[in-house]
Amino acid sequence: MIDGTRAVVSVKLRARVSLMRKVIIDHPGDKYWDEVDRTLDTLRAVAKTKPDPAKALAKALKASLDKDRATYGQQTIEIEEGEPDAWVLDLNEAVERGASTKGGFAVEGDEPSGEDSAGQV
Prior knowledge:
Blueprint: H1 11-26, H2 32-48, H3 53-72, H4 86-97
């Protein structure tokens, strides 16, 4: 699926995808992204109560990945760890800061439509 692309499949990306897979299995439907946001908000809130919130969040995401791998198996392609594009680093930073669709991401070129000028991704 990623052959011939510039996509970098990292452990962080896999952990996030595993969390999204769990959410879609538990909460399919048109409120999927709302539930992803709620799940991430909950993980962040719990992580903030720990001495090292970033480490606690990483541990929670790793647990999600471990459970996903136990359920669905591991992929058979090799992961080439490389430096992701700048936009991926920006997105990772925003996720780690706690940005969600509730707060919105400003997307260059978006025009305010009246209901939300932040441009949601």
